[in-house]
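> call design_seq(struct)
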């Protein structure tokens, strides 16, 4: 229950710090009794769960590294390498939108506006309640396409989802 709550409400640092304590408490609390040798199927299941856990913990960190590589490549003007690294980051962390934004920026730099728009729309579909996805799509429509009508629709959606301007506006009035 603690681990499930940590997934929703706390950063991974809490789990990382407290996991050894719970492991030690669990091993101290085990009951002595007739020992049974675990079967091959249970060992395989435990191994599979452990492997899935390790992969789920390592994947976002690896994605961040690929994202850094993509930023560096884009800064150096290597657009192809930036797109490749951003695509790899997206594959490692498929729920993240930053790799999509970076890959779209690289596609824009290459002049591939159709792919940039596809990537930004994919980000909107992936996180439709995230104001930044709508903002990036609005920015693209305005800057790359020159389509003020669509840009305003998407910017309005971004503004509607972003609660911060409403709070500061209410405080100033």
């Amino acid at each position: 229950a603690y681990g499930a709550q940590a997934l929703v409400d706390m950063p991974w640092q809490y789990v990382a710090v407290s996991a050894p304590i719970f492991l030690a408490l669990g091993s101290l609390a085990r009951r002595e009794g007739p020992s049974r040798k675990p079967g091959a199927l249970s060992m395989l299941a435990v191994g599979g769960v452990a492997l899935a856990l390790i992969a789920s913990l390592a994947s976002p960190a690896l994605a961040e590294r690929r994202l850094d590589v993509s930023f560096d490549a884009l800064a150096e003007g290597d657009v192809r390498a930036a797109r490749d690294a951003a695509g790899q980051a997206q594959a490692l962390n498929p729920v993240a939108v930053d790799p999509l934004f970076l890959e779209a920026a690289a596609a824009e730099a290459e002049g591939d506006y159709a792919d940039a728009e596809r990537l930004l729309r994919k980000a909107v579909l992936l996180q439709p309640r995230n104001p930044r996805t709508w903002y990036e799509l609005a920015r693209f429509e305005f800057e790359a396409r020159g389509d003020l009508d669509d840009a305003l629709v998407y910017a309005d959606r971004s503004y509607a989802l972003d609660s911060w301007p409403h709070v500061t506006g209410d405080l100033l009035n």
